[in-house]
Amino acid sequence: MTGRKVASDNLFCNQGWEYPRYRDRKKIMKKTLLAAALCAMASASAFAQSATEGPWLVRARAVYLQSSNGDSTPLSLSINDKWLPEVDISYFFTPQIAAELVLTVPQKQTLSAGNTEIGSFKHLPPTLTLQYHFNTAGFKPYVGAGLNYTRISAVNLPAGVDVDRNSFGPALQAGVDIPLAKNLYLNFDVKKVYIRTDVSAGGTKLGTFKIDPVLYGVGLGWRF
Fold it and tell me: Which residue of 20, 83, 177, 219 sits 20 to 30 Å from the alpha carbon of 116, by its own alpha carbon?
């Protein structure tokens, strides 16, 4: 009886059969190994892309500033819209997350009351945003939000009229980087920046002037 059972077992194995519990184990092991391989390939791909492009991205843009000219004073204040140069520096913490510092030079603006020019001032509005870059093929859209600080200087207004020199406010951003060549991108960018200053005459506050511009930018970026 024992010899028959052994022979039967040997025949069973020789025909390529396996007990169900062994088949289940092999399936689980294959799936585990496949998942580990896919994770390793994805990590290697992300690492290779990051190593090829580098974490830094520098852009030079031409930007059109369009002010909202909101005014709560009785003067109907407004400033002129204008083109200005802009340089920004981005650092990628991951392939999707980056921080961007937006810089320019002090910009001179003409201030008008109604249709009459009454003076001018300069403003320097550095802006820091935290961005999310979408992982798409062919182009790289992104959105961002952050903080703006504006320093107003060289104020030239009628005697007794003055504006607050400092402004803090939020900033919102959306844009896209389009690959042109290795590490070279064409960039389109739109930002909404909240810049406001209190206006006074003879030491008495008249109201708040809201510049709150929309900034339309186009430029080139270099990733390294």
Answer: 83
